Amino acid sequence: MTTRLVNLVIDAARPEVLADFWAALLGWHAVVEEDREIDVRAPESDGWDLDLVFVPVPEPKEVKNRIHLDLASTTPEHQAELVARALELGGRRADLGQGDLPWVVLADPEGNEFCVLEPRERYADTGAVAAILVDAHDPELLAGFWARITGRPIRAREGDTLVGLRAPSGRGPWLEFLRNDDVKRVKNRVHLDVAPPAGADHAEAVTEVVAAGAAPADLGGPALPWRVLTDPEGNEFCVLTPR
Predict the structure, then answer these.
(1) Comparing C-alpha atoms, which of 192, 52, 217 is closest to residue 227?
(2) Rounded to 5 degrees, what are φ and ψ at 148?
């Protein structure tokens, strides 16, 4: 498989506001692209090899996101500082019925959930973002699919509850699949993009990804240079043009 992760895309009513929030919270920088798209990029030292991409959409957020970010902390004091900073920047606390936990559940200015984790050894070297967390009915199945199309091997398992992938370099955030029995009802507001390398054949890359277990997604709208597919649990993602 030739594709790799290149973006985490977040739909937004006001991309500028969300990009500013996340850039300030993470200590990254924002770059304005075409059509009001804004990319937030990590410093090379963070080991994050994909962009946070904010794109304008007219639809409001309706349900809890199936994909969210977990932020890393190094000490209890650092965790408290991150929570305070998020609230000062326009975030809020989110009650998902989680009860009393060592991590803190928050939402950004448009209600996208994220967690500020307590210090954990597994995330000591990830940089600002500990993990991209994906809800999954079958974490093993979904992790296996994403391992095949991203080249990120499985590096962690917690029973049948969580399966984690890590970049071969051992740097940057984990991509984790957490058991959750919620039923997907609407198009995901947060999705992943993959792309083949420069010079590769886009159509062949799409064919490979479909053979690995993806399915075409018909979201309507104009023809696009990239292909929109769904993973084995119906999560939308894009196969971008080679880059």
Answers:
(1) 217
(2) -65, -40
Q: Are 142 and 233 in contact (CB under 8 A)?
A: yes
Residue keyed to tokens 């804004």: 38
Cα distance between the two ends of the chain: 15
Q: How many CB atoms lie within 10 A of CB 59?
A: 10
φ, ψ for residue 29, nearest 5 deg: -130, 150
Q: Is the pLDDT of residue 195 over 70?
A: yes
Separation between Cα atoms, residue 147 and residue 78, nearest integer Å: 32
Which SS3 state, helix, strand or coil, does residue 203 take? helix
Contact 238, 191 (CB under 8 A): yes
CA distance 136 to 145: 12
Tell me the torsion sign for CA atoms 109, 146, 197, 203: negative
The residue among 178 and 2 whose pLDDT is bigger is 178
Q: Over 70: is that where the pLDDT of 221 sits?
A: no
Cα–Cα distance for residue pair 76/73, rounded to 1 Å: 7
Q: State which amino acid sits at residue 199.
A: G
- Helix, strand, or coil here: 139? helix
Find the mean pLDDT for residues 61-83: 97
Phi-psi region of 165 (alpha: psi -120 to 50; beta: other; left: phi over 0): beta
Angle at 20 between CA 19 and CA 21, to 5 degrees: 90
Q: At what angle do helices 15-26 and 76-88 cross, to 10 degrees?
A: 160
Reported pTM:
0.95
